[in-house]
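Please decode residue identities from the backbone states below.
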């Protein structure tokens, strides 16, 4: 009798395992570029118009505290794929690194277990992809108009606007799959990367908004030496021509690479919108703060106009999944490769371990498994996504992945996932941000800069959420410095970051 019972149980286990295998979820990751959570309705922006991104939040979970390990384009994608920090997957910075596609990735694991896999759009990790049944990716950074794509058949230009084309290609691939499931599709958007080039149909949508100047816009960077050296100030570094399309003459505008690649209709639409703005600006003869604030306003408009097409195209993907009855068994993730400054500290761009670039928007919908309209406050990092998706797909997580699956907190809004967050930014080039690494917990953030600037910063995030006062040398924080250094060393050792370890032990305190 007992033997029979065991045999029956085994049959049931095998059967249910088989059923689970058949029901493995599809995965659609929509990955934007430089999209700030401050400009998303679901994250509380009052001026944002992001109905489709908000739809994912309404039907799934919004992660309040999702972070990246290295706040820059290529490295963030490398981490998403590998589940490893930059020093382990080898893609440390955009300027000197080459991504080794021979290494393992969560997509390779999914493909090996029967998933159909594809990456369409921006990847920024070269053109020799592995692990994908299909790919059609933007060459390098890609362009907003008439972009060139690279696939297994080589490079080819497609006419039109990038967010539409990327979505057309992605839906075309899904359509071609027929009933083949499961699939894993990454849709990589060019938006909202610099220089912001909106779809002309979105011109004017934010022109009348009186954007509030962030309270840290006139930051003087006192007590933060690395911040003093940066070159990402809207006032000083944002370019009137390249960024804001304010060219002194029409000829100069047309000589710019962004316009040279447009067809006549596209060019005419840009001329019709931008030339009157230039004439108006010229008449105003703005200087000093008035000009800085004009630039801030135009920056907001350019950026939000560019995001419009992306959000509209995200809606097309959600509609498609609905129409094809795929929505219930498809995990949809929306995230950016990092956060972005929308005038906080006077900046545009990213890179810093300060909150606006350290954090990223992250939304996840999985009907039946994730409570609609839920908010998750546990801290997660982008390295955690790969093991999470593998667990949800019932695929064993390779032991060398450094991320930690957050499946167990998906329906626990208050549960903690990671106590401390480790960060390491390596690039030492454009925008002059000193390389740095650090650790953050719920109250404190400790940062060690090196190469351009050699120093430490400590922030008390509860007393100073805008990170304006470095209290590293404040005697009343001596104990905190000591305990945060202990935490930092523990993270360095845990993630096996030898470069950070050597710098950590280089004593620079006088
Ligand atoms: Ca980026």
């Amino acid at each position: 009798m007992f033997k029979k019972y065991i045999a029956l149980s085994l049959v049931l286990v095998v059967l249910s395992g088989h059923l689970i295998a058949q029901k493995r979820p599809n995965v659609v990751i929509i990955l934007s570029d430089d999209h700030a959570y401050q400009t998303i309705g679901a994250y509380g922006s009052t001026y944002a118009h992001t109905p489709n991104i908000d739809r994912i939040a309404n039907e799934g979970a919004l992660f309040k505290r999702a972070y990246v390990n290295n706040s820059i384009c290529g490295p963030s994608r490398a981490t998403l794929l590998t589940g490893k920090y930059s020093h382990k997957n080898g893609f440390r910075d955009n300027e000197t690194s080459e991504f080794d596609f021979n290494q393992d990735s969560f997509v390779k694991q999914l493909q090996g277990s029967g998933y159909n896999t594809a990456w369409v759009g921006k990847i920024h990790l070269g053109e020799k992809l592995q692990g994908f049944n299909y790919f059609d990716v933007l060459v390098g950074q890609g362009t907003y108009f008439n972009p060139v794509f690279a696939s297994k058949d080589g490079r080819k230009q497609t006419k039109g606007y990038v967010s539409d084309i990327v979505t057309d290609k992605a839906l075309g691939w899904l359509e071609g799959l027929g009933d083949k499931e499961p699939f894993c599709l990454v849709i990589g958007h060019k938006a909202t990367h610099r220089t912001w080039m909106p779809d002309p149909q979105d011109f004017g949508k934010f022109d009348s908004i009186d954007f509030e100047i962030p309270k840290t816009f006139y930051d003087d960077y006192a007590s933060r030496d690395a911040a003093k050296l940066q070159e990402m100030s809207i006032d000083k570094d944002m370019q009137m021509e390249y960024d804001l399309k304010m060219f002194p003459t029409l000829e100069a505008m047309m000589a710019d690479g962004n316009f040279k690649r447009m067809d006549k209709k596209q060019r005419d639409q840009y001329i019709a919108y931008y030339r009157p703005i230039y004439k108006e600006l010229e008449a105003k003869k703005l200087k000093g703060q008035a000009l800085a604030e004009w630039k801030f306003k135009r920056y907001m408009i350019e950026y939000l106009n560019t995001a419009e097409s992306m959000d509209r195209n995200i809606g097309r993907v959600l509609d498609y999944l609905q129409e094809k009855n795929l929505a219930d068994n498809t995990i949809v993730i929306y995230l950016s490769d990092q956060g972005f400054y929308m005038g906080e500290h006077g900046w545009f761009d990213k890179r810093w371990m300060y909150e606006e670039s350290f954090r990223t928007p992250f939304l996840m919908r999985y009907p039946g498994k994730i409570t609609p309209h839920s908010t998750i406050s546990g801290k997660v990092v982008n390295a955690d996504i790969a093991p999470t998706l593998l667990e949800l797909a019932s695929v064993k997580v390779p032991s060398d992945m450094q991320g930690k699956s957050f499946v167990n907190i998906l329906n626990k809004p208050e549960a903690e996932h990671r106590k401390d967050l480790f960060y390491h930014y390596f690039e030492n080039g454009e925008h002059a941000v000193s390389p740095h690494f650090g650790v953050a917990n719920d109250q404190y953030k400790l940062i060690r800069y090196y190469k351009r600037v050699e120093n430490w910063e400590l922030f008390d995030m509860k007393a100073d959420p805008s990170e304006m006062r470095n209290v590293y040398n404040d005697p009343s924080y001596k104990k905190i410095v000591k305990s945060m250094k202990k935490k930092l060393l523990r993270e360095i050792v845990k993630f096996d970051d030898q470069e950070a370890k050597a710098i950590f032990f280089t004593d620079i305190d006088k």
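Observation: The longest strand covers residues 26-32.
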